[in-house]
Design brief:
heterodimer; A: 242 residues; six-stranded mixed β-sheet; four-stranded antiparallel β-sheet; B: 201 residues; MetI-like fold; 8 helices; binds adenosine-5'-diphosphate; binds magnesium ion
Chain lengths: 242, 201
């Protein structure tokens, strides 16, 4: 579904992605972790081309993302992206946030899009908030709306960039449980997170990054209990202390 | 007459200003310096000089405009420069995440501007825009006070009679610009520094 082949990217002189090779199959849930600044967000953002790769090849559902002539709208319609800071549209209510892309990108009728949106809001447990505005919602609720917004495009892939890092601890659970449900339903997911519980419960693979490189890949239990590299061991001991 | 000139030039200046502002906020490396220079020139020269240039110097190049058209043209161009500044600032005040979220859902750039960015930018744009309208309406009195209808004909004759007239206007414009351009640059860079500081706090 997603294939990185010797992908490289620089920000000026900073080598932020260093020869990345990675495959994610349909239905797979991959957790990406690593210290801050190691390139996790950039890795994710290359997949829907919020960032351009500079060397190597990157395929998403057969589409060559490294090729500048591809249809970006088509690529992005297949990928839902959930941000750390939610980025809901503050001038629209919850329902309008979710229906915006189905109406204007998919060309759905308003009524049809609203039915679809209500179904997605139901899935994240927020059907009763359809007419609320984002600022009236808690962080956890906003993030669940953001997930519903991503789901409304019926994507093949969902990308999450630290979806619970901006949340108060008591709200992390409600967001994670929505994500667990999606994972169990067979959604292809790449999740940048340090939530070990989530990783152990649903991830098929954990990828550990440092300084733009993939240092280590493993099954969650193996990775967290017996990391191969010292860097990963150090990192795990740090997140455990939290 | 004044009302008509103000109305027409505010309308056209707003459209042109919004277009320029939206293009400028995309930070295209080729187009941006051009728009930036245009805005700086317009901000750096007195309106009266710009009016005289449209009225007296354009005819020298064979562009003979009716008085009304000339007045509207001068005011539209000037207005669009100021409005461009306001619109650019308004768009840049919308968090980057709004661009990222909307492009991630597959909206194209026109849809992003129309559905997501501009509705939010308008909050920042409206107050200074209204202020700018007031200033522009005041400026329109410059055009009408010297009597638009006579101005072109009389001025035209003057310029023809004194060939230096053309030179004088160009010189005055250049002089003003030489003084105010560095000031504009300084204020721009100050603005940028202050914004950066605020972000990094
Ligand atoms: N747009 C950018 N311009 C310049 N440097 C950037 C940009 N985005 C990220 N970086 C840098 O690239 C590195 C990797 O960033 P990122 O992918 O966000 O890491 P992570 O998500 O693992 O914390 C960091 O050092 C960061 O400062
Ligand atoms: Mg990050």
């Amino acid at each position: 579904m997603i294939r990185f082949q010797n992908v490289n990217k620089w920000f000026g002189s900073l080598h932020v992605l260093n020869d990345i090779n990675l495959q994610v199959s349909a239905g797979e849930v991959v957790v990406v972790c690593g210290p801050s600044g190691s390139g996790k967000s950039t890795l994710l953002r290359c997949i829907n081309r919020l960032e351009r790769i500079q060397k190597g090849k990157l395929f998403v559902d057969g589409m060559p993302v490294h090729d500048s002539t591809i249809n970006l709208t088509k690529l992005r319609a297949e990928i839902g992206f959930v941000f750390q800071q939610f980025h809901l549209y503050p001038h629209l209510n919850v329902l309008e946030n979710v229906t915006l892309a189905p109406i204007h990108v998919r060309g759905m009728k308003k009524k049809e899009a609203e039915e679809l949106a209500m179904e997605k809001l139901e899935r994240v447990g927020l059907a009763d908030k359809a007419t609320a505005h984002p600022e009236q919602l808690s962080g956890g609720q906003q993030q669940r709306v953001a997930i519903a917004r991503g789901l409304a495009m019926s994507p093949k892939i969902l990308l999450f960039d630290e979806p619970t890092s901006a949340l108060d601890p008591e709200m992390i659970g409600e967001v994670l449980s929505v994500m667990v449900k999606l994972a169990e339903e067979g959604m292809t997911m790449c999740v940048v997170t340090h939530e070990m519980g989530f990783a152990r419960q649903v991830a098929h693979r954990v990828i550990f990054m440092d300084e733009g490189k993939i240092i280590e890949t493993g099954k969650p239990d193996q990775f967290f209990d017996n990391p191969h590299s010292d860097r990963a061991a150090l990192f795990i001991s740090k997140i455990l202390k939290h | 007459m004044t009302v008509l000139i103000s109305g027409a030039s505010l309308f056209l200046g707003t459209i042109l200003g919004f277009l320029l502002g939206m293009v400028r906020s995309r930070k295209n490396r080729l187009v941006n310096p051009l728009i930036g220079f245009f805005v700086d020139v317009m901000r750096g020269t007195p309106f009266i000089v710009q009016v005289f240039i449209v009225f007296f110097i354009l005819p020298e190049f064979g562009v003979e405009l009716e008085a009304f058209t000339a007045a509207v043209l001068a005011m539209t161009i000037m207005g669009s420069a100021f409005i461009c500044e306001i619109v650019t600032a308004g768009i840049l005040a919308v968090p980057k995440g709004q661009w990222e979220a909307s492009s991630s859902s597959g909206l194209n750039i026109l849809q992003q501007l129309r559905l997501v960015i501009m509705p939010q930018a308008m909050k920042t744009i409206l107050p200074p825009l209204v202020g700018q309208y007031v200033l522009l309406i005041k400026d329109s009195s410059v055009v009408s006070a010297i009597g638009v209808v006579e101005l072109t004909r009389v001025g035209w004759l003057t310029v023809v009679r004194i060939p230096e007239g053309l030179m004088v206007f160009s010189l005055v414009a250049a002089l003003y610009f030489a003084i105010s351009y560095p000031l504009i640059r300084i204020s721009n860079s100050l603005e940028r520094k202050l914004t950066v500081n605020r972000v990094s706090l």
